[in-house]
Structures are given as C-alpha cells and as structure tokens.
Design brief:
alpha+beta; Alpha-Beta Plaits; five-stranded mixed beta sheet; 2 helices; 5 strands; 23% helix
C-alpha cells in the first residue's frame, strides 16, 4: 500500500553548517526514497530542506533532521507541509 504523497519544507537552525549536515540529509533522503534538495542558507542562518515523497517517509526525515549528524547542534526546526508537486527527479545538494 502506498502512503499519501506530500511535500515538506524544513528550515533547521543551530550549529548546522560545516558539520556535514547537507551530506547527512542527502543520505537520509536517498535511503527514504525522497526527492528534493538541501542547501545552506546565507550568513550561516541555517539549512533549508525541500523534500517530496511518501508522507510517512517525510516524517522520518524530519525526525532525523531534529537531531542531525553527530557534530551538529540543532536549536530550532521549522516545518511547513504542502501538497505533493512531483517537480524533483532526485534528491540533491544545492550549492
């Protein structure tokens, strides 16, 4: 049975740049069969994640982003859910 498809935008704040957060997110998203991207925000403001796929897989990704890789210190996470658009062929790191 296929879960409902959805899209989520997640902004992660804290010590999340320079700690392999984007690579961590990429590995998690690929494992969960999600599409979208991750990128650093300007002035070390945080990391933005746009992901699409099965809603239960997106929820797992969000849970993992709340912790991040070992060197990260997540202080806040903002999540915005929306309808699935299907615009990303894969998951990537934007520079």
């Amino acid at each position: 049975m296929v879960s409902d498809l959805a899209s989520v935008q997640v902004t992660v704040y804290g010590h999340v740049q320079g700690v392999f957060f984007r690579d961590f997110t990429l590995r998690c998203a690929v494992e969960l069969e999600l599409t979208g991207y991750v990128r650093n925000l300007p002035q070390h403001a945080g990391v933005e994640v746009i992901a699409e796929g099965e809603k239960d897989h997106l929820e797992k990704l969000v849970s993992r982003l709340e912790i991040g890789p070992p060197a990260a210190r997540v202080t806040e996470i903002v999540t915005r859910w929306s309808s699935y658009a299907g615009v990303y062929p894969s998951f990537s790191i934007k520079h």
